[in-house]
Fold:
Amino acid sequence: MIELGSTTRRAIDAAGLGPIREKLEAGVRLSVEDGVQLFNTPEVAAVGALANRVREQRWGDLTYFNRNLHVNATNVCEASCIFCSFARLKTGDPESYTMSLDQAVGRVRALREEFITEVHIVNGLNPDLPWEYYTDLLRGIKAERPDIHIKGFTAVEIHYFAEKYGKSYEQVLTELVEAGLGSLPGGGAEIFHPRARKKLCHDKVDGDGWLEVHRVAHRLGLRSNCTMLFGSIETIEERVDHLVRLRALQDETGGFQTFIPLRFHNENNRLRRLPEPTGYDSLRTMAVSRLMLDNIDHIKAYWIMLGIKLAQVSLAFGVDDLDGTVREERIYHMAGAKTPQELTRTELVQLIRDAGRVPVERDTLYRIVAEA
Amino acid sequence: MTRSSTDTPGEPKDTRYRVACVGYTNAWPLTRHLDPARFDVFGSVPSEAARKLKTGEADIGLIPVASLFSDGDYRVVPGLAIGCDGDVASVLLVGETPIEEWDSIALDGASRTSVVLAQILLRGPLAEKLGGRELRVFGVDPGTPAFHAQGKTGAVVIGDAARNLPERLTTRIDLGRVWKEWTGLPFVFAVWAGRPDLDPDAIAGLRESAALGLPERQLAPEADRTYLTEHIRYALDDRALMGLRRFAALGKQAGFFTHEDVSLYGPPRTRLRVDLDTLLSKGADGERLTYEEGVRLATQGRVEDLGNAAHLRRMALHPGKEVTYIISRNINYTNVCVTACKFCAFYRPKNHAEAYLLSKDQISVKMDELVKVGGIETLIQGGLNLALGIEYYEDLFRWMKAGWPGVALHALSPEEVFHIMSVSKLTMDQTLDRLIDAGMDSIPGGGAEVLVDSVRKRIAPLKCTSDEWLEVMRQGHKRGLRSSATMMFGMGETPAHRVEHLLRLRDLQDEHGGFTAFICWTFVPDNTYITPANNTAADYLRVNAVARLMLDNFDNLQASWVTQGPGVAQASLYMGCNDFGSVMLEENVVSAAGSTWSMTIADVEHNIRTAGFVPVRRNMRYEHLDVRGIVTPPSARV
Structure:
């Protein structure tokens, strides 16, 4: 049991969090009201200290990272999510693209000499592709790199496949697993609550459907991740509702490995007038997630999304996993960019060490590849 | 502390930790890099490793988990284990005939864990196959069960023997898989365990060994590589612990174990943290901390503890919801400089193509822009330009005061004051008196870097000494000037150096109370000649919080969003800072070194507000201003 120092406890109690602290110390699950109170507590360092305690109880100073390759095979997407800057509605639209299988597999082939343990595949909902495109894609990648774990297709895509190709979730998943799929990423969750979801993404799978896909996946033995898009038009209550729904499914299946809060960005989409969530909001969201999701192992931060500095600070706010493009060698550094496009492994390891943590390289299923 | 003490007269005692471990293939990634200078390792079968730990012949054991629940009061090293999550390939039920036909089973006496696991599974998920029959169970010598598996007798085989079975054994049931299908959880076979008082140093050594050994699995021969990377799982994470606890509960229920508790060694820092508590509490209450106490906080304090203690202190000093900021403009009148500091990306030599000296016309435009947006302060700083004597500054200040009387002149770092003294051959008294007479309102705290001469000599050999820097401030304060104080860190100095810096500022503040605020920031390395160290955001928040706790006689701490970005600056408002610095119409020095954050008035207010505070404008003396720009008395603020 990690004890909070009395001064830190004083600061936590001064912020009105005494009852929540006592619950956490007694191992009592936090309620929806607790979640709302945590979000509405201005003292982010006090909330962070509680989250840090939970994080250290689980992982001590261990901080995970992995090396992967992202493949987005097509950005053609029938869905019209208003927060998206990536999708193009139809094949042939300006800036739309769909990789040939050879191009997509070529992305993996190009990294033949690189040490990576995972390929992460997320695509648009493309109406012009046959089912075999996806299974062939998986087989192609596996043929190229049989050792690599493929984490691919959000629940939104799985739902779309089921509808479009007339299959059950189970069939879709089973066929993808046979072709080489290893686990599901957590994207597409956005906000489950119907009010916000209707505004954000009215024409893609609803919250229950998203959860059902993961339920089926877990039953088939697949592990998966889960996410929440925060800082757009949702309320604090809707954030907590989202977390609690994930927690309930996790109670049922235990299949989620990692929760990743995703920060809303306002460039090049229909919400550009909305201010982006601040660093403060990002920190408190990660901390509250750690506290509410008492049955999910890991909380992950993307440094690309937060910036390197905030991502490092998040390691004291409940986060135990840092993600983002990591390369063994940096080819060049783009001058003038606020955050670099990629970090070398050495830089990332140093960043974690400077935060007083112990870096550990993992694979997709959180098996330790190396303590860095 | 349990180190070995094999007393051999005349020879030094062997003080190494005695380690008993299993000699199976799956153990080497954990054990092969145990430092022979610190660990005396002997390998054996699992039951023997457990026995050695039990009798005290070993300090640490890589022991089968069954021993945890029957042998005594052990603690488990967190993070590391030998387990599986599905097929394990090396713990199997085997036989010549299908399991449905068996009447007895041979168990390996060397491994209690697999024996218990097999019996639990035979009574659980495998019971159906036996049609309710109880198998006759008999123990055999380590390594021999496979030979006993004949006819209607099955066997549990473990370890390397299970991976090289004779062909006649056609029934092969992987117990890792059966467990996984039944419970959905990983199974843990062995853990590092020891007595509760085991030295944290030993635990650190075990982790170091794993850190070196685990990657080498990739170099193992093909057959082993697959086994070690895909079947064996070395993480003792939450799920593995759940699996371990489930096994303990089932084993106890079935009468194999005496208890089911798993207690882990805590993180080694826990003890330290409680010790630090007194110091954190003193700091939070505004009591004076000594140098030694400061160094302890700076080296051992965790950011969340330091930050929360600093926040308590900050709230005691500023109980309202306000966070202040000022609208200001840097006027870097020249970049010509003779000091060539290694950390600086701004300066240029005299005849360099990019060297400049601003004209009055240029300054005039800048001042008009500043006043237009409500600016009330200008920060006048520049290089040490040999062409500029006191007359230049007197003329500049008088001209600025006449043209823009509402703008305070926060002007000239101590370094520049020294420079004027030497160019114009004046005493410090004469220089300050003349500058104040010309309109200087305040001395900015820049150029302090780290006020420890050994550090200054290394990073800025031509700059004034710490004493000289402080003397300018002292003389200014004596004359009623207010000034700010700064620290730039992250250039290879030690935490003790930083604490020394803070104490020098605190001592001077005791004399006249002239410092308005303390501002620290991290060294930004691009375009400079110094290798940074400890200049990350995590370091910033720690150092800033330590400063809040040490500087008990400073009213204000300013956040440095210019170097840290708005998000980290927001967090610092709950870790000691009460001021958000300035909306700067122009900043040339830090941005020359690659720090590119910029904010408008609206941005600054948005960041203060979304962090849960009320933005309030202030003047150079940190007095709050109302919407008309008039100072509000402290009584009106609460």
Remarks:
- Chain A touches chain B through 58 residues (CB under 8 Å).
- Chain A has one domain: 57-371.
- Residues 328-338 of chain A have pLDDT under 50 and may be disordered.
- The radius of gyration of chain A is 20 Å.
